[in-house]
Design a protein that fits this description.
By secondary structure, the chain is mainly alpha-helical. The protein has a domain at 131-166. Helix content is 50%, strand content 0%. The protein has helices spanning 10-41, 96-105, 115-123, 132-163. The longest helix has 32 residues, at 10-41.
């Protein structure tokens, strides 16, 4: 019966598709890493243009890449990058004014980080999702239909009971 069957969730379907694409990309990365490792184990041929010249390591003439680790001094998103907010042990000092601001703003809802997403969710603008008002209307109509069917059944049972009494 179609009334009790759930409709597929388009966001969940999209998530599954993205997970499968991610798995395919990871498999491709592993395959390419295996090829690079295999090529690194094979002996390299020496050039005949320069006799007695050994193979040069890859990237010999290039400067080394910077480490990808986080740096405390260059973080553009941290407003407090200086040492002024740290005590002698390197622990952050107590910030009374900041705590008061957080406490004062605690009762009010903060602004969303992505207002466009909020707009899409409120209007039902994500492709494949019906608008919320449509979902409410469908739920209301199902409820009214169920109430009407229940009333008809109760009326029929009462009518049957009244006419079959001696």
């Amino acid at each position: 019966m179609a009334l009790f069957r759930r409709k597929p969730d388009p966001i969940r379907e999209r998530e599954e598709r993205l997970r499968s694409q991610l798995a395919a990309v990871e498999a491709q990365i592993q395959k390419l890493n295996a090829e690079v490792a295999q090529a690194a184990t094979e002996p390299r041929l020496r050039s005949t243009a320069q006799p007695h010249a050994g193979p040069t390591p890859p990237g010999a003439g290039q400067p080394p890449l910077p480490s990808p680790g986080p740096s405390r001094s260059g973080n553009p998103f941290n407003r407090r990058t200086g040492q002024a907010h740290l005590n002698e042990r390197g622990v952050a000092k107590y910030d009374l004014l900041g705590n008061l601001r957080r406490w004062w703003r605690g009762g009010r809802a903060g602004r969303s980080r992505n207002p466009q997403l909020v707009t899409y969710l409120a209007a039902g603008g994500i492709q494949g999702l019906p608008a919320l008002r449509h979902e409410k209307r469908v739920a209301r109509n199902r409820f009214l239909l169920l109430c009407a069917v229940t009333l008809v059944l109760l009326w029929g049972a009462f009518y049957y009971w009244m006419h079959n009494q001696p």
